[in-house]
TrEMBL record:
Residues 1-32 are annotated as: Disordered. The gene is DPY19L3. Residues 1-10 have a biased composition (Basic residues). One of its GO terms (molecular function) is mannosyltransferase activity. It is a multi-pass membrane protein. It comes from the Eukaryota. It is found in: Membrane. This is Putative C-mannosyltransferase DPY19L3. Belongs to the dpy-19 family. Pfam families: Dpy19. GO terms for cellular component: nuclear inner membrane. The chain crosses the membrane at residues 41-66, 179-197, 217-235, 242-258, 264-281, 312-329, 341-362, 416-442, 463-481, 487-509, 521-540.
Amino acid sequence: MTTVRQRRAGKGTEAAEDQPSEEKNVKPDGKILSDHTGGRLWNILSISVGGIVALSLGLLTSVYVATLHENDLWFSNIKEVEREISFRTECGLYYSYYKQMIQAASIQQGLHGLVYDNKTESVRTINILERMNVYQEVLLSILYRILPIQQYLEPVYFYIYTLFGLQAVYVIALYVTSWLLSGTWLSGLLAACWYITNRTDTTRVEFTIPLRENWALPFFAVQIAAITYLLRTHLQPVQERLTLTAVFIATFLFSLTWQFNQFMMLIQALALFILDCFDMLPTAKVTWLYIIQISALLLVCVLQFFNSMILGSLLISFNASVLIARTIQKNLKKGGLLNRLGKLILHVLLVLCLTLLINKFIKKSLNLESDEHIFKFLKAKFGFGATRDFDANLYLCEEAFGLLPLNTFSRLSDTLLFYVYVFVLFLLTVAAVIVAFQNLSGSNQVQFMEKMEEYTITLKPDAAYNLIHTVLFGCLALSTMRMKYLWTSHMCVFASFGLCSTEVWKLILKCIRLYTSQRTHVIKYSILIITLLYISYKFWPGIMDELSELREFYDPDTVELMNWIKSSTPNTAVFAGSMQLLAGVKLCTGRTLTNHPHYEDKNLRERTKQIYQIYAKRSPEDVYRILRSFGTDYVILEDSICYERRHSRGCRLRDLLDIANGHIMDGLGENEPDLKPSLYPRFCEEIKKNLPPYTIHFTRVFQNKTFHVYRLAKHK
């Protein structure tokens, strides 16, 4: 039988809390005596050694990913334009604002340029600080300007070293979370080792440095560590206040640095809601966490000039609904099993209805449509009807937004991580189900529980939270591959905690009638050491080979294009093309763009669909009119898009455009019956023939093996 049981020790280290209280340490009135001097010294030594190991592993991880980045690109030896081109797609867009702030005449002028930006979207002035999460670039640029480091460190190195430094914070936070859960720093060591040896599936920082998630996930890990500590029993009021402050700061920084923060925190809020419904977490602490989430998000909303996507977020509506529903249903956790189940069902329905009503009211009142493409994508992804919506299909056809590939599990199994994770997940899920049932049925029969004491296992609130957290984020990762990094890093924490948990091994040994305290500790530490030795033996040579492998950045066609733009076009020229390429154009040349990869704006999405007609079956007059409506001077056509083979038929960009335009797709295969043949050939193919209907509007001014640049005529 399983039950929730508070730890009897209120103070001391984690290791001490794992040990059962002994009668000789307890006064008749129940007060716990102070530990012996030897025990205190041992605990201090253990914490000191564990802290040193955590810092060392964090720094080693930073050096490791920085070395991989250098070895892969020979970053220190390539030209500046090549360094900037290496920041692909949206990474280049974000870094361009850091560069813009560095090159501004003053900090004030740099900020003014961001608030009143007219180069990111042509014929339109936008507020970059409102639209995008770039406060980290602003802060770094200010630090670089005021610190006396310009003579020793180039701006780009200050930027990338900061990101690699955050990896140290990330690993230390994972290490501490595992340590807090298990009570031994060896568990944190195993979590960090798993994170490093499964690097392919736990991080992509070395080749997508400026990506928003690489800024945000370290703070998210810190927040999880702080929540784990907050949910421990018998915290002193001062400890609780300090921990709540840490949770708020981490939540705020996480929210400030990633535009998808609201969706991640919504999943976190759902985890808290589920556990609170089954009485597995202290209600007061859960309430504080709801309030912290709302407060942090609203503060970010203010800093982002009342960003509409934040105001209309489901997280704010959901948390507000939970708090309102609680005030309506005050006796939710009283009564027998059937009574509580009925109340619980009503509570869930009330929260869902309130969430939808509040969210609908906010969006209707403020006319918010910033995130509608996400809900269209989710609707199509989970089979609620096919769609011809261009934006939704653009996401559906990207591998990163597809299901998690099965080979991910084989890689995670090579390090034993997946096997241990499934084992621990199964045990704790069974424990959680039993605990939830007992809580709902109000099973508080003390004498009965004392008789069954030898069959019990504790499921502490911090362990319960991390269990639901890993389950929900696991579901997210399975459905959307890009989100796997939120799951796999926590998988390292959860598996290492389970492997080093006294409670887990105690339960197993009791089930097979072999339990003794000494045997539990021998098995726990033996398996931990064997696992660490196995990982070291199998993966250390591979890591050394990886660190010794030297490659070099090579993209001559893009370098040639960027150099030509800088030398042969006016500074005020406006360029149209693919979102990914234009981000690089802005970073490398500073020219004005028609569109870009930051897709969280309805007007930009509509603009991008119009610009992409250069790859559709449209007349030259239509394409010219569309491009000129956005002030375009030059259009860049890419053969890799026009003749794309990376995606299958139906998912190529030109196919998505044909479907959205109601045209039959190219190539062999079926078409939907209502699609019609286009009256015109594909623009990106036909323009290269230099026929009069095209040359009257477009003049080719540059070409190489990959790119074709055309200047638009300026008809009166």
